[in-house]
Design a protein that fits this description.
Length: 477
């Protein structure tokens, strides 16, 4: 019997589980995929929004501003890179200027600090590569960037280190309530919990219906991205938005915390919640709008592309409520969901407290998690000392990102443990460079095989049937 079951191990579920792990509670995190951070968390813009965009008085506005203010401290505790690089919302016309003035007014009402409008000349002094056609911009210095999947992995790992349990491959198919206890079942097993947090992303409406709540629906919204080589990561220093419309903030151009450049996303409402294909039409839109904003963006230096699915709720706001006793929805957590996630976790903890659960703080809660990239960020002297203790850190596996065998094994031996190539990629950046795993993948497969004690041929790219190797082409010598 668990006190709390959290359904979904994305950034919302992960942050919530970590917050609740501060208390004397028995917690279980349920995730249908073979790893955490597998939904929208692994494929989004990675922006910690300042909070000027959401309608004043909404949950989005309140939790965005609070979450943004909390993020730097939490990222530091979890060993995740965070950079307050600021953001511009760029305008090209008089109507854009009117919308930017409305955003300024809204941001001030929301409590965003230090917002101001700059003219085109000042904008280009701050960001020299912005188009000459830009006439003005809203400047938000408190906007920041972070790695969303690393943050979610670290949050879940920290929750597990503090006693929470994680069940992967647990796709919820039925929820029953009897005598004040929820029985949550997958095809293979069941667990019981007194309280349930529904943080299942695009599937929150389906999970809610299992609990008897049909008060909202989720529309999946596809967003395609192009990632560029680090050679062009410095084209802009801040995150560059276009003036937003009803479908979102438009095509952005932003550096990443790891030194790349990201462009996107598109915005297309779809029916299939797992449709993450990329399209020529999507790329065309990204390229044309990016050139309009920053003409010097080089798309011949892109190294990969991807698509994420945003969870758009039918209410137009975050849906964080308790439709029935002991069951809490955290639904419709689209942008600015990443930015709001620390505040969402606090909000849910308060809801649980109000519902009657006793939140007694642990004396031994440890908020600190060792950074994933501690080795590559060490000085040469520090690296030599680490290698003296463990020679695996002296063997470079991924040449593009300079990731060592020691770093890969370090991640495979701590919570939550990866079991496939993509899991290693998200934790270490091995396979994320120019060759996209072309050279290092065979070595990583071998490490996974040895560490997990499984046949080389059974190692997968991303779980399921995504086998990397089908069979041996030569016999053993």
């Amino acid at each position: 019997m668990y006190d709390v079951a959290v359904i979904g191990a994305g950034i919302t579920g992960g942050m919530t589980a970590r917050e609740l792990s501060k208390y004397k509670l028995k917690i279980c995190i349920l995730e249908k995929e073979n790893d955490v951070a597998m939904g929208a968390t692994k494929a989004n813009s990675a922006i910690v929004h300042a909070g000027f965009d959401a309608k004043e008085g909404s949950l989005k506005a309140r939790l965005n501003v609070k979450g943004s203010e909390m993020m730097e401290k939490i990222a530091g505790e979890l060993g995740v890179k965070y950079k307050r690089n600021g953001a511009f919302v760029v305008g090209f016309s008089d109507s854009d200027r009117e919308n930017i003035e409305k955003l300024l007014e809204r941001g001030n009402k929301n409590g965003v600090k230090d917002l101001r409008i700059v003219d085109g000349d000042e904008l280009r002094k701050m960001e020299p590569n912005i188009s000459d056609k830009a006439t003005c911009a809203l400047y938000a210095p408190t906007s920041a960037i972070v790695c969303p999947y690393e943050l979610a992995i670290a949050a879940v790992g920290n929750a597990m280190d503090n006693g929470a349990e994680l069940k992967l491959g647990f796709e919820v198919c039925e929820i029953e309530k009897k005598d004040g206890v929820y029985k949550i079942s997958s095809e293979n097993e069941s667990i019981e919990a007194r309280y349930v947090i529904n943080a299942a992303g695009c599937y929150t409406d389906e999970i809610a219906r299992m609990a008897g709540d049909d008060s909202f629906t989720i529309t999946p919204r596809r967003g395609e991205y192009i990632l560029h080589d680090k050679e062009y990561g410095g084209i802009v220093s801040a995150t560059i938005f276009r003036t937003p419309n009803e479908m979102g903030k438009g095509i952005l151009i932003s550096p990443t915390v790891d030194g790349n450049l990201i462009t996107g996303p598109t915005a297309e409402n779809i029916e299939e919640k797992s449709d993450t294909k990329t399209t020529a039409e999507g790329f065309s839109k990204i390229i044309s709008q990016s050139f309009e904003t920053v003409p010097s963006v080089k798309f011949n230096k892109s190294i990969t592309s991807f698509c994420g699915i945003r969870s758009v709720g039918s209410t137009g706001d975050f849906i964080i409520n308790s439709p029935c006793e002991g069951f809490i929805n955290a639904a419709g957590i689209e942008s600015p969901g990443l930015s709001s996630s620390p505040a969402i976790a606090l909000y849910i903890a308060d809801m649980l407290k109000e519902s009657g659960i006793k939140l007694i703080k642990k004396e031994n809660f440890n908020p600190i998690r060792k950074p994933a990239h501690f080795f590559r960020e060490a000085s040469n002297e520090e690296k030599n000392e680490i290698i003296k203790k463990d020679k695996a850190y002296g063997r470079v596996i991924c040449r593009c990102e300079t990731v060592t065998e020691g770093e890969i094994l370090f991640e495979m031996r701590r919570n939550p443990k990866p079991t496939d190539l993509d899991g290693i990629k998200r934790r270490t950046r091995a396979q994320m460079g120019r060759c996209q795993g072309g050279f290092c993948s065979p070595y990583i497969v071998e490490l996974i095989s040895k560490e997990l004690g499984i046949p080389y041929e059974s190692v997968t790219k991303c779980g399921g049937k995504s086998l990397v190797n089908v069979s041996k082409t030569k016999g053993d010598k």
